[in-house]
Design brief:
The complex is a heterodimer of chains A (about 375) and B (about 170). Chain A has about 375 residues and is mainly alpha-helical. Helix content of chain A is about 70%, strand content about 0%. Chain B has a single domain, classed as Rossmann fold. Helix content of chain B is about 40%, strand content about 10%. The N and C termini of chain B lie far apart (about 55 Å). The relative contact order of chain B is 0.16. Classes of the chains: A mainly alpha (about 375), B alpha/beta (about 170).
Chain lengths: ~375, ~170
């Protein structure tokens, strides 16, 4: 642990690929999301802020920072401040574990999937507390809906994450990416993982409170959901936190199912060897970093596009329809496929799917 | 100064609106809803409709401010965070309209809260409402009227597209 290592790590956490990079990619993805959503509705979307409205999310955020910050008389004021700051900090911390510029994340240890699972559950708790502290009877229906929705969709997310861990025999994101590199295919192409991929995307949509699962913030029935009393800086923090959660969910889906920041070198071993060889060289390492970052950005954006297509194409469910769908269908099906993964995948992979694996085995 | 410029830019680029009906006949409300449809698409200008007054910057008020709605309008205005702006949409909101000389005085919303921009009409067209919002944004930037740079259109293409439309 030399001084140089410390400086590089601190710079990495602050700027690239840490807080600065994550916030820029979150704002960029919100722009992509809004543009695509508008295009599907035969609109133009944000147009006049920067090139094709690319600075629109930044303008929204800066405006909210400059606005007056109202704290109601009856509310728990320190609670409101606390939840706004922690709500922004949790996705930022979680994003440090996602591999972006390398096959390992900025922070990485064996078992970091467990920490990420804990952090995603913490987000649900923070949302509940944010609604509770604002002490508004208008915020309470949204808060209760958010709590029941987020808790019921934690389980499929955790099952999908642990199914991938089970399949790849690894409890760290770095190990999962390495398994996909060694197997010459993304986890998505393992037999039952397609189901978990779909479940993960669906649950992320519910986690992010976007249509068809935008029940907690349904703006036509309960004005603004749990964030109805928040204004100014705190609202800006919560909106940025939602964008960061979107990037985090997309990044986690990319890492778990689509090979993380790796790209075509999965099928071209010589290219992979070259990438590994330039890692230590100071001048050429930039090339590898740029390559990995580009791959990560492309894949994340594709996931975000899928999520916004969900948002545009489906209508909102009612809360009891949603809970019924979750507890009666998604969780049993996920549990069943999880059991199948546990008992049969090693066998099917060896016997039936060895042919399928052979297709990708180029070495 | 630079900070102030950035804040003004951000404010001009993202005016979030909340729609308040103070007892009108719903004619203006339909026009406000029209503004948000894909045909007019005000999200181009960064305008989003918000459900809660705490999230909004611009109050779009329709209706003549009846006795029952006066206190509630004042409350909504107080709940909106500073800096807040008010647009009066329609003849009723501007002056009371046909309710002005009725047996209960409804003299328009500027008897209750300060108004920045008046948009007359019964009801005003969606274009007029968008122009009113643009007036407000110009006022924010310190200009007298919104600067509109007309887009150059190639006449040949326009003629061709019109002919194609007629052929259908």
């Amino acid at each position: 642990m030399t001084a140089v290592w410390w400086i590089l790590t601190i710079l990495g956490i602050l700027f690239f690929p840490g807080i600065g990079f994550c916030i820029s990619i979150a704002l960029f993805d919100e722009w992509i999301d809004r543009k695509f959503y508008a295009a599907l509705q035969d609109r133009i979307g944000p147009e006049h802020a920067g090139f094709k409205g690319i600075l629109q999310p930044l303008a929204d955020f800066l405006k909210l920072l400059a606005n007056e910050d109202i704290e109601p008389e009856a509310a728990d004021k320190w609670g409101m401040r606390f939840t706004a700051i922690i709500g922004l900090a949790i996705p930022l911390v979680a994003l440090l574990f996602i591999p972006i510029i390398d096959t390992t994340g900025l922070l990485s240890f064996e078992g970091d999937i467990l920490l990420l699972a804990f952090l995603t559950t913490m987000i649900a708790l923070i949302i509940f507390l944010a609604g509770w502290f604002s002490a508004s009877k208008l915020a309470m229906p949204g808060t209760m809906r958010a709590a029941s929705q987020l808790l019921s969709y934690e389980i499929p997310i955790l099952l999908a994450m642990f199914a991938v861990a089970l399949r790849t025999q690894s409890f760290s994101l770095a190990g999962i990416v390495q398994w996909q590199l060694d197997a010459h295919r993304p986890t998505l192409f393992s037999l039952p993982m397609v189901v978990f991929f779909l479940v993960f995307l669906l649950s992320s949509q519910a986690e992010l409170e976007r249509s068809p699962f935008d029940i907690p913030t349904a703006e036509t029935e309960i004005v603004g959901g749990w964030e109805v009393e928040y204004s100014g800086k705190k609202l800006g923090f919560f909106r940025l936190s939602a964008d960061l959660q979107m990037v985090f969910s997309a990044g986690l889906a990319v890492t778990l199912f689509l090979g993380g920041p790796t790209g075509v070198e999965m099928w071209i071993p010589s290219f992979a060897d070259w990438l590994a060889s330039i890692e230590g060289v100071s001048g050429l390492a930039v090339v590898a970093i740029l390559y990995y970052t580009t791959m990560f950005a492309i894949k994340t954006t594709i996931i975000v596009l899928i999520l916004s297509a969900f948002r545009a194409l489906m209508a909102r469910l009612r809360i009891e329809q949603f809970l019924e769908f979750s507890w009666k269908w998604v969780i049993p099906v996920t549990l069943g496929v999880f059991a199948i993964t546990f008992f049969y995948v090693p066998w099917t992979d060896n016997v039936v799917w060895s042919h399928w694996e052979g297709l990708f085995d180029v070495s | 100064m630079v900070l102030q410029k950035i804040i003004t830019w951000a404010r001009v680029k993202s005016p979030w609106i909340i729609h308040v009906n103070t007892g009108g006949c719903n004619g203006c409300d339909i026009e406000v809803v029209d503004v948000l449809t894909p045909r007019y698409d005000v999200e181009r200008l960064g305008i989003l409709i918000q459900g809660s007054p705490r999230h909004a910057d611009v109050l779009m008020v329709t209706g003549p401010a009846t006795q029952q709605m006066k206190d509630r309008l004042k409350l909504l205005h107080e709940q909106t965070p500073d800096p807040k702006f008010v647009i009066a949409i329609g003849a009723c909101a501007c002056s009371g309209g046909i309710f002005r000389h009725s047996y209960i005085p409804c003299l328009g919303i500027d008897t209750v809260i300060p108004v920045d921009v008046y948009i007359p009409g019964c009801p005003p067209k969606p274009e007029a409402i968008i122009f009113g919002v643009a007036q407000l944004l110009a006022k924010l930037q310190g200009k007298d009227s919104p600067v509109i740079t007309p887009k150059k259109i190639a006449l040949k293409d326009l003629k061709k597209s019109i002919e194609e439309g007629l052929a259908k």
